[in-house]
Amino acid sequence: MNSVTSMLLSLVPASGHIVTTSDCYWRTRQFMQQFLPKMNIGVTVIKPNDLEALEAALNAQKVTLFFSESPTNPYLRCVDIAAITKACHAKGAIVCIDSTFATPINSRALSFGADLVLHSATKYLAGHNDVLAGALAGKKELVEQVRTFHHIMGGVVDPHAAYLLMRGIKTLDLRVERHNASGIEIAKRLEKHPKIDRVWYPGLESHPDHSIAKGQMSGYGGVVSFEVKGDLWAAAKFIDSVKIPYIAPSLGGVESLIEMPAVQSYWAFGPEKRAQIGIKENLIRFSIGVEHVEDVWADLAQALEQVP
Ligand SMILES: *Cc1c(COP(=O)(O)O)cnc(C)c1O
Ligand SMILES: *[C@@H]1O[C@H](CO)[C@@H](O)[C@H](O)[C@H]1NC(C)=O
């Protein structure tokens, strides 16, 4: 989060304007909508890939920066980085992509024209669910501005966390290979399961952004979101019945983690507000670890049997 806040505070001037996409990590949205207005910074929220809305926002005011995850949390929406960059650069807006879910192996936002790419290194980069860190890379003159501000703010990674992060990165390629392979396999099997309503995984043809993802990603990673047939309690029964994943709100580590966004991240919102921002009551976000895919599947399948 410090990478996000330092980046925004150092690059967007008072009275500036940001364009961002609807599906996203909640804290980032909270910072933009609840804190930045204090500096008279405005935010326009568009649907991922609504290029008309992006054009309209770019024409309505001077936009300093476009920010989106790709894939997003929790529906794994992917934005067309090249198309967005083209539109933004024509109006002098900076493009920053939070590529946490993709990892630098599966997607290279900078090579599609983005000015900056951001990662929560807490997730795949460190990879072991035991470090908090972030990373920002891209155009030197932009990164320099952020770095100067970052030194003022003091949100630094301590030496032990830095060591764990460096150690984790050594196996990034090996881990992502397994996450990619297990991710697509589990997504396909879930999609065929009678107790599943819908699966959200950019590697599936049924995903709304499959063709975009195919064009800019080499693999689709280990996060699979899906809707259990039934209500919040059906999904809760499922999640309480799995044995391998820990029930926890992070992702991208060697251990599988599973969570219900409606309960863990958005409970305080209540059902109406959740519906309004598109968080389904029966939605599960599953971050597949590096366990054997057949063990993971057997566990999910037995838990689905418990769902009434
Ligand atoms: C986790 C996450 C963050 C926040 O990162 P922390 O390392 O937990 O501060 C930001 N963006 C995305 C997409 C994330 O998944
Ligand atoms: C998955 O990950 C590896 C990294 O090891 C990558 O090279 C590969 O292209 C990715 N994609 C698929 C579909 O496996």
From TrEMBL:
Name assigned to this protein: plant cystathionine gamma-synthase
Coiled-coil zones: none
PROSITE patterns: CYS_MET_METAB_PP
Gene Ontology molecular functions: cystathionine gamma-synthase activity; pyridoxal phosphate binding
Family (UniProt): Belongs to the trans-sulfuration enzymes family.
Cited Pfam families: Cys_Met_Meta_PP
InterPro entries with a match to the protein in the record: CGS1/2, Cys/Met-Metab_PyrdxlP-dep_enz, Cys_met_metab_PP, PyrdxlP-dep_Trfase, PyrdxlP-dep_Trfase_major, PyrdxlP-dep_Trfase_small
Parts of the chain that traverse the membrane: none
Signal sequence interval, chain numbering: 1-16
The keyword Signal is assigned to this record: yes
Keywords: Pyridoxal phosphate, Signal
Cofactor(s) the record lists: pyridoxal 5'-phosphate
Keyword flag tRNA processing: no
Catalytic activity: O-succinyl-L-homoserine + L-cysteine = L,L-cystathionine + succinate + H(+); O-phospho-L-homoserine + L-cysteine = L,L-cystathionine + phosphate
CDD domains, per the entry: CGS_like
Pathway participation: Amino-acid biosynthesis; L-methionine biosynthesis via de novo pathway; L-cystathionine from O-succinyl-L-homoserine: step 1/1
Lineage: superkingdom: Eukaryota
Cellular compartments per GO CC: chloroplast
The EC number(s) this enzyme carries: 2.5.1.160
Any one of the GO BP annotations: transsulfuration
